[in-house]
Amino acid sequence: MPDPNVKIIVNPNADLGRAWQSSAELRKIVDEYGPADWSGTVYPVHAQELAERAALEGYDLVIAVGGDGTIHEVVNGLMQVPVEKRPRLGIVPFGSGNDFSHAVGIDPRLNYSIRQIFNGEPKAIDIGKLRPKNGSVEYWSNAVGIGFDALTLIRFQQMKRLRGFVAYMAAVLQTIAKGIDSPRMQVKTDRESWEDDILMLVSCNGSREGGGFLVAPEARPDDGVFHYAWIEKVSRMMLLRILPEVMKGTHGRFSQVRIGEFEKLRIVSEGPLYIHTDGEIYAGFDSDVREIEIEILPGAIEVMS
Q1: Tell me: the pLDDT tens digits for 142-185?
Q2: Cβ within 8 Å of residue 52, ≥6 positions away
Q3: Residues 92 and 139 in one domain
Q4: Is the pTM of this model over 0.70?
Q5: Reduced to 3 states, what is the DSSP secondary structure of residue 242?
Q6: What is the residue range of 35's domain?
């Protein structure tokens, strides 16, 4: 029997604004399992504030209704409280990519995902911690992208007419056409170190990002390690050759691609780093972040699945 002490946080703008409309259908199902308190987000990082407040108020389960960005905010809110006070996390996927919900095995269908939360079992999943040399700590659940894919995301978010995977592919092509930054980076993990001109480096808890790019096919959110994939500086033509392979998870066969695992990672770059965390821009065009550390927090949050 599910714990009735439930907080549901809805991003009304998710799924092109249809999430709030679908909440009526969700409410009927939730009512079958007992009472729940509902809140809607009204500004950026509001979901983080609501999740932290729910944890401090003693809720046992916090359900995020939205995409990867909403989940990212809720996770950051839950991580503000000690583990013994941290509620379990439920996910109703309502985004364009839904990469993290896919990683933890959430059914993409509305009616099934909400029932899965109440009828499923808790599973401890790993969470990432990103710390810049000078700046605030950010927690992340699915992926941290540095370089090319962060630039692509910035341009994806600027698109007005296209949505979903088609828009993301258009942003990829636009980023390639406008030129590619590949700053010199020193990378050190708990297992290895190297230095190179790096086009893109993605740290992965889940296997995919961007709604369909299988960046780290072996990554699992409960295995106690993060996986990484990076692409060194290449020509536009070579990048166009590699990217379709990333969609299939076969990019590791190229000599310009490196794949591995880590628990701690440190990057020092000669140029500014463009960074996204779970599809949210952490360091954009106006940023001068050049040094970051990433580490895994094993089993930090329990997800109902």
Answers
A1: 999 999 999 998 888 887 776 667 777 888 888 998 877 899 99
A2: 77, 78, 80, 81
A3: no
A4: yes
A5: helix
A6: 6-120
